[in-house]
Amino acid sequence: MEGLMAINGVVNGIVWGPPMLALLVGTGIYLTIILGFPQVRYFVYMFKEVLGKIGQKQGDEGTITPFAALSVALASTVGSGNIAGVATAIHLGGPGALFWMWITAIFGMTTKMTEAALAVRYREKDEGGNWRGGTMHVLEKATGQKWLAWLFAFFTTFAAFGIGNATQANSTAQALELGFGVPCWISGIVIVVLVALVIVGGVKRISDVTTYLVPFMAIFYIVGGGAVILLHASLIPDAIGQAVCYAFNDPMAIPGAIAGWSVKQALTKGVARGVFSNEAGLGSAPMVHATAITDHPVRQGTYGLFEVFVDTIVVCSITGISVIATGTLTGRPDLTGAQLTLTAFQSVLGTPGVWILSLGLAMFAFSTILGWYWYGETGAVYIFGLKITPIYKFLWIAICLVGAIGGGGQFLTNLWDLSDTMNGLMAAPNLVALLWVSNEMRKMVKDFDAKRKSGELK
C-alpha cells in the first residue's frame, strides 16, 4: 500500500498540478470568450429554463426529462466535496481558496455547458435503446481518436468506484455515526439495500429518485447553512472580504493563521477543490445530460450552467462562508474536512447544527453514489458492451459496503487520494475533446441563438 500511495502521489501531483489546473481553467476562459460569455447572456434564461420546466416534458428524442438529467448530474456533483472538500481547501489554503473556487466556477459554467451540449450532439443509442453519450462518443465520432475515447472510458469506469462510490459510502456512514450514533456496519447494509433498489432500474429509476432527493437535500442544506450565516450576518462582508483579499495577499497576516498558508496554496487548493466539487472539465456529467429529452443541444447545455452555479456559487459558498464567518477556521486550526464544517454549524446552532450537517452530508454522499453509478456503467458499457452491466452492478454494491465499513483514518485518506487521482486523469482526454470540437460548439450556439430570435425555439 505504501508503494502504491507513493506512485499515486507522483501521478496526483501531475494531474492536479499547476499545469493541469491552468489548462482546466484556461479551457473555461477560452470557451467563455469564443461563445460570447454564455454564463452572463444565459444567466436569466437558465433559471427560466430549469425552474419553468420542472415536471414538464419536451419533444424530440431522449430517455429522461431535462430536469431529471440535471437532478442526476447535481446528485453526482453535490456530494461530500461540498462540505468536506471545501473545508479542507480553506484549511490548507486559507480564506483565499474560496475566492479561487468562485473563479473556477464562473468559467467552469461555460465548460460544463459545452460538455453537456456536445454530449447531446454526438450521442447514440445502445443495444437496449437507451441514449449513451459523453466524452468518449465525442472523441470517437468528432475527432476520430478512438484510443483517447477508450482511455477516458477506462478512467471513468474505475474512477467511479472511488470518487463516486467508496468515498461517498464512507462519508455517509461516518456522518450518520457522528450525528446519530449509527454504527457504520448498519449504515453500510442500509446503503447497499437502497442503492441496489435504485440502480437495478437503470438511469430512469436513478432519475426518478434524484428528481425528488436533490431539491430536498439542496434546500435542506441551504436553509441550515443559511441560518448559520444569517446569525453571523454582520460578519458576512468580512468573510467575503477575507476570501478576496487573501486570494492575492499573504494570509499569514490573519490573527491565528495556520503555518503554511500562502497565496499559492490558496490558488491551487481553491481551483483543485472547485473542479473536484463541480466536475467542470472532467467529463462526468455529460454522460447523463446525453440522455435528456431536448430539442437542441445548447438548450440542455444551459442546464450545465445551472448545475455549476448551484454546486459551487451557492452550496460551496455556504460551507466556506460558514467556516470563515463563525471564526472556526482560525479558532480550531486542528480541524479539517467535515469536522471543521460540523464545528462551525455546532458553534451556532448547537446539537441541531450537528444533525443538519450530518444528515446533509449523508444525503449529499448517497445521492452521489446514485449519479456516479451511471457514469461508471456508461464507461464500462463503452468498453465491454451491455453485457457488463450486471457485473458492474454487483461490483458497485460490493464496493459500497467496503467503503461504508472501512472506517476513517488512513483508510479514508488513501481512498480520497486514489479517487482524486483517477478523477483527475479523466480531465486530459476530456479537455482534448472540448478544444478539438470548440468550433462546432460555437456553431451550435449561433444556431440556438438564431432559432430563439426567429421564434423557432422558445
Concise overview:
The protein contains 22 helices and two strands.
Provide a descriptive summary of the structure in words.
The chain has 458 residues and is mainly alpha-helical. It has one domain: Up-down Bundle (Amino acid/polyamine transporter I), CATH 1.20.1740.10. 77% of the residues lie in helices and 1% in strands. It contains 22 helices and two strands. The chain has helices at residues 2-15, 18-34, 38-41, 43-52, 66-77, 84-93, 96-121, 135-143, 146-180, 184-199, 202-230, 236-245, 263-278, 286-289, 297-325, 328-331, 337-349, 351-384, 389-405, 409-425, 427-436, 438-454, and strands spanning 124-125, 131-132. Strands 1-2 form a two-stranded antiparallel sheet. The longest helix has 35 residues, at 146-180. The mean pLDDT is 88.
Q: Walk across the major sheet and give the strand order.
A: 1-2
- Helix share, percent: over 70%
How far apart are the termini? Answer: 56 Å
Mean pLDDT: 88
Query: Helix count?
Result: 22
Strand share of the residues?
Answer: under 5%
CATH topology: Amino acid/polyamine transporter I
CATH architecture: Up-down Bundle
CATH superfamily membership: Amino acid/polyamine transporter I
Number of strands: 2
Q: How do the SSEs run, as a string of H and E?
A: HHHHHHHEEHHHHHHHHHHHHHHH
The CATH class is identified as: Mainly Alpha
Number of domains: 1
The general outline is globular
Structural class: mainly alpha
Specify the biggest β-sheet.
2 strands, antiparallel
